[in-house]
């Protein structure tokens, strides 16, 4: 009989809280890189990316895959946004528009991939998953590392114009790293720490920290097109995936309602809209049906009716 992994797959049974009621995100487990001469060589037709359009972390990987023109090199499979008791389902387990079947193993759920390569795996079954078809294992399931891999590892195999795209350039690394240091805990994960808190004090601390950091970001974006320097970097990608979900989901579902982006943060809104409407890597990686359905459906501990709100209208304002 197979091992009971319900406590790892069912988010409503998550034990990821400390005694103060604060949400603690577990660290990712698969942390390999793709490099010449390494266990995972950069090659065509070897790697596969599993994502959910709902997930901000997976969307980082989707955006960078497209910015770097890696679509032919690294095919992608999209799961259903309705993450239930067994985690993320493929189309065969949950027929949702836009969901797909696992082309490699006909898995029913993302957890099947984790257990296929690591039967004793005791962590959460998260997306994104970067899979190696040769060794039949997960190379990496940490989006911040997957986007760095995509940024450089395949440069010799892609269109030279795309190879020149560098979202983590040497001269801006220090600034990018410093920004990541607060944007990740306060904003990217801050919305989750607000929404998943199970005590009022933990929620209030998280939501105040979140809005303080949004205020800080708003000032940084004053008169600027990109967050760091005058070019698109991973700082924009990493921050944008949270900003685009903010008004449609986090304001309501995660109680991040001190302000919304469209009326409270004109600079963030301008930056966010511009990337959405003018750069296909951003718009094409965004599916609001999957985003809204995922959050409002998948956390019955927060929204037991699973009703998905109609608004906001529009989901993203015009330029
Ligand atoms: N650190 C990971 C986090 C990924 C993550 O937490 N993904 C969420 C979806 S937004 C997930 O798959 N959660 C499933 C679960 O926790 O059971 C990354 O950035 O790649």
Automatic annotation (TrEMBL):
> Which Pfam families does this entry report, sorted A to Z?
GST_C_2, GST_N_2
Query: What keywords would UniProt list here?
Result: Oxidoreductase
Keyword Oxidoreductase applies: yes
User: Which InterPro entries does the record match to this protein?
Assistant: Glutathione-S-Trfase_C-like, Glutathione-S-Trfase_C_sf, Glutathione_S-Trfase, Glutathione_S-Trfase_N, GST_Omega-like_C, GST_Omega/GSH, Thioredoxin-like_sf
Q: What class of enzyme is it?
A: oxidoreductase
Where is the region Disordered?
1-22
Compositional bias (Basic and acidic residues): 12-22
Q: Where is the composition biased (Polar residues)?
A: 1-11
Cell inner membrane among keywords: no
- Which EC number(s) are documented for this chain? 1.8.5.7
Which is an annotated GO molecular function term of this record? oxidoreductase activity
> Which residue ranges does the record assign to the GST C-terminal domain?
158-295
The record ties this protein, via PANTHER family, to: GLUTATHIONE S-TRANSFERASE OMEGA-LIKE 1-RELATED, GLUTATHIONYL-HYDROQUINONE REDUCTASE
Question: What name does this protein carry?
Answer: S-glutathionyl-(Chloro)hydroquinone reductase
What is the species listed in this Swiss-Prot or TrEMBL entry?
A: Marasmius crinis-equi
List the lineage, top down.
Eukaryota, Fungi, Dikarya, Basidiomycota, Agaricomycotina
Could you tell me the gene encoding this protein? Answer: ECM4_2
């Amino acid at each position: 009989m197979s091992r009971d992994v319900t406590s790892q797959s069912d988010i409503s049974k998550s034990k990821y809280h400390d005694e103060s009621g604060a949400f603690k995100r577990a660290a990712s487990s698969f942390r390999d890189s793709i490099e010449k001469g390494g266990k995972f060589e950069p090659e065509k037709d070897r790697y596969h990316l599993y994502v959910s359009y709902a997930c901000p972390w997976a969307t980082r990987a989707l955006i960078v895959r497209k910015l770097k023109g890696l679509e032919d090199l690294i095919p992608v499979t999209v799961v259903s946004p309705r993450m239930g008791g067994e985690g993320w389902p493929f189309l065969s387990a949950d027929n949702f528009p836009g969901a797909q079947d696992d082309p490699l193993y006909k898995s029913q759920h993302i957890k099947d991939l984790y257990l296929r390569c690591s039967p004793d795996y005791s962590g959460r079954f998260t997306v994104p998953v970067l899979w190696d078809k040769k060794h039949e294992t997960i190379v990496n399931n940490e989006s911040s590392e997957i986007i760095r891999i995509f940024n450089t590892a395949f440069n010799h195999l892609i269109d030279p114009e795309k190879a020149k795209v560098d979202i983590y350039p040497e001269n801006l690394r220090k600034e990018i790293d410093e920004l990541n240091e607060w944007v990740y805990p306060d904003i990217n994960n801050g919305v989750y720490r607000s929404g998943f808190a199970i005590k009022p004090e933990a929620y209030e601390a998280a939501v105040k920290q979140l809005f303080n950091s949004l205020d800080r970001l708003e000032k940084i974006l004053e008169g600027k097109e990109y967050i760091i320097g005058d070019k698109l970097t991973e700082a924009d990608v990493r921050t944008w995936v949270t900003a685009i979900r903010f008004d449609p989901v986090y304001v309501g579902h995660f109680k991040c309602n001190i302000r919304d982006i469209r009326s409270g943060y004109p600079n963030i809104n301008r930056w966010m809209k511009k990337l959405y409407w003018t750069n296909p890597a951003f718009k094409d990686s965004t599916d609001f049906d999957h985003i809204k359905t995922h959050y409002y459906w998948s956390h019955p501990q927060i929204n037991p009716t699973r009703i998905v709100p109609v608004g906001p209208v529009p989901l993203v304002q015009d330029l």
